[in-house]
Predict the structure.
Amino acid sequence: MDVLALEAKNVGTGENEKKSAPRPKPKALKKAKRIVYFEVEILDAKTKEKLLLLDKVEPTATILDIKALFQKSNPKWYPARQSLRLDPKGKSLRDEDILQTLPVGTTASFYFSDLGPQVTWGTVFLTECAGPLIIYLMFYFRLPFIYSPKYDFTSSKHWVVHLACMCHSFHYIKRILETLFVHRISHGTMPLRNIFKNCGYYWFSAAWMAYYINHPLYTTPYYGQQQVNTSFYIFLFCQVGNFSIHVALRNLKSQGSKVKKIPYPTKNPFTWIFALVSCPNYTYELGSWIGFSVMTQCVPVAFFTAVAFIQMTVWAKGKHRGYLKEFRDYPTLRSSILPFIL
Amino acid sequence: MSAAAAGTSRAAHGPDVAQKKRRGPGALATAYLVIYNVVMTAGWLVIAVGLVRAYLARGSYHGLYYSIEKPLKFFQTGALLEILHCAVGIVPSSVVLTGFQVMSRVFLTWAVTHSVREVQSEDSVLLFVTAWTVTEIIRYSFYTFSLLNHLPYLIKWARYTFFFVLYPMGVTGELLTIYAALPVVQKTGLYSVTLPNKYNFSFDYYTFLILAMLSYIPLFPQLYFHMIRQRKKVLGHVDDYTKVE
C-alpha cells in the first residue's frame, strides 16, 4: 500500500496539510487508483419497487446531482419535485448533502417520493399579495355588483376610509417590493396546492375586510379622529419596523450562502428589538394589523389579525427553536415573538 | 432538556401512543378514559331507553324529542371533552378532526334544534337522534372495551358496519332539520347582525345555514369513504385476529 493511501486513512495525522484535508482531496490526487464509485439505487418509498439503478456515481456527487440523473430517466420529475430519503419514513435528504458523507455503504439505497407539482416561493408570495391589493381597490372604488347599485363608483365621505385604503395598499405594495428586491428565502419551492390554499386565505380575507370598510353604511371609529390618528401612527411605525427587520435579515447572509447567523441589533433603532425577540418581523407585522384594526374599528379586520397572530406565533416559535438548536450561545433574553411573553 | 427525563409520560412515547390506543400513556389516563367512556355509553343508553319508553307511552313517533331533550344536550355537549383528550394527547386522534366532528354535533343540538323551537316537533329530529344514539352507544362501548383490552368482535363489527345505514340516516335527519329551520330564521333574523353598527360587522344566520347544508356535499362522501376504508383495514384481517384477548 502506498504512503499516500495510508496517510489518507489516518485523518488524525496533521503532518502533511494536503493529506489531512477532508477525504475528497486525497482521492482526487489518486484518481487513477483509488476512487470508489458508488452504486445508487432508487426505490419507490411506498411500493419499494426499484425505479432506477445508477452505477459509477462519484462519491462527491450531491443529492442534487443524483436527482438530476434521476430526472434523465423520468423527465416528468424535476429535482424540486423529488424527495429522496434514506428511510421511507425518515426526513428528506438535502440537495447539498454529499453522497460519501451519508451513512451508506458503496451501494446506496434512496427512497423516492413525488412531492407533486412545485411552484417557486416567489410566485406564491407575489400572487398572495397582488390579489389583496387589487381586490381591496375593487371594493374601495365600489365596482358594480358589490353594494347596492345606487352606490356604484361612489366614494366614501369618511376620511378614515381613504386612509385605510392607502394603508392597506401601501402594506401590500411594500410586500411585493420586498419579495422582488429584499427577501432571500432558502426553500426554493413549495407544493402547487399551497398557492391555492394561501391565495384563498389572503384573497378572501382582503375581500371580507374591504367589504365592510368601504361599505356605504360603514360606521367611523367611536373615539373619532384621535383613535384614527394614534392607530395610524402605530401602523406606520410598525411598517417601518417590519421593513427594517427584513433589510437586517437580508444583510445577514450573502447571496447563495447557506451559513446561518444570529441576527443582532444594528444602528437602526427599529432593529433594537432583536435584543428581546427572535422574530421581530412578526412582532411588527402584528403591530401593524392591530393598528389597522383599531383604526378601522372593524371586527373582520380584528379577526384576520387574530388568525395572523396565531400563524405567526407558530412560525416564530419554530424559528426560535431552530436558533436555539443551531447556536449554543444564543441570547437567553429573547422570546420568539412577544418580548418576555411568548 | 432535562424535563424530558422527568415524569411527563403523557405524550412521551409518541410512536406507542400512535400505534396502540390501548397501550395509552399511563394507568391514570387510561382509568379516566375508561370512566369517561362508560359514563358516555350509559348516557346514550339512557337516551335510547327514554326514546323507547316515550314511544310506548305515546303510541306514536312524533314529538319524542321532548322526552330526551335534557340528557341529549348533556351528553352530546359532554363530548367536547374529547377534543381536550386529543389536545392533551391521551387519545391519539387529530384535534382538528375530532373538533370538527364534535362541533358539528354541538351545533346541531344547540344552534339549530334548541334555538329554533319550531323544528323540535319535526320527525327529522327523531331521525338524527336515533342515528346518533345507536352510533354513540356502539362507539363508546367500543372504546371502553378497547381500553380494557377485551374487545368483543361483535362490537368491533357493529362499529364498522352499522355506519353504512346510520351515517346516511343521520345526515338526512340533520339536513332536513336545518332545512326546516330556514324559514323561521329568515323571518325572525335569529343570530343575525345587520349594518350599520359600531363593529362594522354583519352576519346572516340564514345564509350561514344554507352554506352549512352545502358543506355536506363535499364532506359527507369523504367521511363515508374513510369509514369504508377503515372497515376494510380493521375487519379485513379477520383470520389474524384472536377474539378475546
Remarks:
- The two ends of chain B are 39 Å apart (CA to CA).
- The CA atoms of residues 160 and 229 of chain B lie 10 Å apart.
- The longest helix of chain B spans residues 27-58.
